[in-house]
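Researcher: Following up on the earlier apo prediction. This time include the ligand. It's nicotinamide-adenine-dinucleotide, with the SMILES given after the sequence.
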Amino acid sequence: MGIGDLVGRVTGRGGPALDVAGATVVVTGAAGGMGEHIAKGFARRGADLAVVDRDEEGLARVVGEIEAETQVRVTSYVVDLADREAVTDLAARLRDGHPPVRVLVNNAGVALGGRFTEITEDEFDWLLEVNLHTPIRLTRALLPIMLENGEGQVVNLSSLFGILGVPGQTAYSTSKFGLRGFNEALRNELSAEDCSVGVTSVHPGGIATNIAKNARTGSGVDPAEAEQGKRKFDKVLRYPAAKAGEEIVQAALARRSRLLIGMDARALDALVRATPSSYWSYLGPVMDRAGR
Ligand SMILES: NC(=O)c1ccc[n+]([C@@H]2O[C@H](COP(=O)([O-])OP(=O)(O)OC[C@H]3O[C@@H](n4cnc5c(N)ncnc54)[C@H](O)[C@@H]3O)[C@@H](O)[C@H]2O)c1
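Model: Understood. Below is the ligand-bound prediction.
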């Protein structure tokens, strides 16, 4: 192994930069939030896009803006990623319709407020479907094409809450820890095979998007408490979504294996490493004050 390879392995950079010009990038959840900026960032670098969202109007707006700014081809798929059959159908359409796929960004995600005892099994499963099973299904469909094409990158949006477990976010943290485990195991499988397809595990801290406003609440949660919880989370979402989206694009192109976004994500990642079983006793009171 040369010195360049060694430095790359230690810093989590997986080889020469990806070129996406003329290739296809698939982005889920592209109608707003970080997904919109991820899609625009790849389009500015000349990638054709396949964009997916359940929000038809939002998706049409983003596609219009991309088409006004660039010459790339954009194909839209209006799909509810919580619907297993629709996702199976989408996976087949993406696989058959986009042979030059080089990057898959599983960005779409949802939140569900409520303690474990306040959310039903169906509510918990809905969240796992969108945040965990769908990214795995789309990876299963598109990874073989990337392997056949000889290069590519799977980019999966985990979270800071995939590094630390947060009270009132059991379903969300479960999905994001799960996705992080999938990302790391798959990345290690692929790197052991020495192929040029990599995995980027993304862990944003609080990003200024509509995720808290769009969140569902467990049916056992008191409505006043639910409103207060949403407001509390919304307050800590401060990092600009456009900046986060650009960092994700750059990490994918550099084939980085792990990306923490924001000071909060970097600091709390370090805290969890230093105090793996007691971090919440320090962090809980700080989060409470920040959300007031
Ligand atoms: N905002 C944050 O602070 C933050 C922090 C860590 C991780 N994340 C993760 O980043 C990703 C993007 O989140 P965001 O903050 O931009 O959220 P957002 O709510 O602003 O955007 C999410 C997008 O996904 C789409 N979407 C949601 N459910 C869908 C479904 N069932 N089918 C199809 N499309 C669906 C929405 O319509 C929306 O366009 C998510 O996976 C989220 O969990 C966000």
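Model: The chain has a mean pLDDT of 93.
Researcher: Noted. I'll compare it with the apo version next.
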